[in-house]
Amino acid sequence: MVMQGDSDINLKGLRRKKKKMVDNRNRRPWSELPDALLYMITKLLGTIDYLMFGCVCRAWRLYAVANRQEFMASQPPLSCCFYNIFDGRKYKAKLPNVVGKICCRISYGYLVVEDQIDAVNSQIWLINPFTRHELRVLSPPLEHNRVILASLETPLSKFVIIAFRRYGSYLPFCRSTYADWTHSVYKRKLYAITTRAGIGVVNLNSCPYVTPLEVKSIPNLKGGLWLRGTDEQLLLINAIGNNHEVYELNLLKMEWVKMQNFGDQALFLDYYEGGLGFSNKTRWKDSERPFNGRYCFDRDNTDIWFHFMDGRPDQSFPFMGRKCMPNTFRFKPSWYFPHESCNVDLSLKSQD
């Protein structure tokens, strides 16, 4: 019998003999992973994780940039405080110093931030809270209460910043390639509606003008009107209290057609027009949230309601666990669509 500690067997030597040599010659580096595998990896990622994924190596960064639009479109819209309504995850974005500023709206995935006190050097500040791209321009010389972004379909990526007042007769704008307010040539057409659902095309040329479209009117139209353009549709949303009617413009017949069914889509609305848009359910990842209807916040911002198009009873679920929403920028809850910022991001990158 051999007592512990008295053995003359070289245990250390035995361990060395059992150690296997690993041959790394047949292993491929991370940068050479096939696109099919990278696709499987990115399907498991959220918005922030996807941006970090592009920082691993050059090959992954190229893949992330090439597929960014498709990936961002697959992400469900976030509320302005970056709360994912499908999986409950919260996102915190480190923003620059915003003391003395107010976030007035969201446009093309950018926060539109303005100085609270008007001054000679007041600025409009556009911030992408995820990529941290930003652009600052001096506030327009004329009074305004709305600022929006519009991406330009030109050979070079550009976008235009438009400031306007609801009942004003002027339309100051500036282009991304020259951050100053001007009235120079822009051939991009913008659709606009009147308070009575008249629609026209705004041409931003040296002498801006509106070309009315001969569209059949909608009888008995009441309440607020919103115009929303998607890749394939031009929509008119008529808000009457808590009810919303959605019309699609039929360009062949030049008439508004009331939508009775959204199919695989859902409409996201808020009471303050800060965020509204369609999102396709087929792009949502592993979500059991309903579709073919509209999502909106309640008046107290504690719940999100879903109204079915087929007449089923409405559903609701708590927003952020019904915790009080932080009074960041004094901004009401709104919807944030991550993919909408992609075109503007490319424009800003091309100017760096």
TrEMBL record:
Positions of the F-box domain: 30-61
Matching InterPro entries: F-box-like_dom_sf, F-box_dom, KIB1-4_b-propeller
Domain KIB1-4 beta-propeller: 82-271
Protein name (record): F-box domain-containing protein
Species of the source: Quercus rubra
Lineage, top ranks: Eukaryota, Viridiplantae, Streptophyta, Embryophyta, Tracheophyta
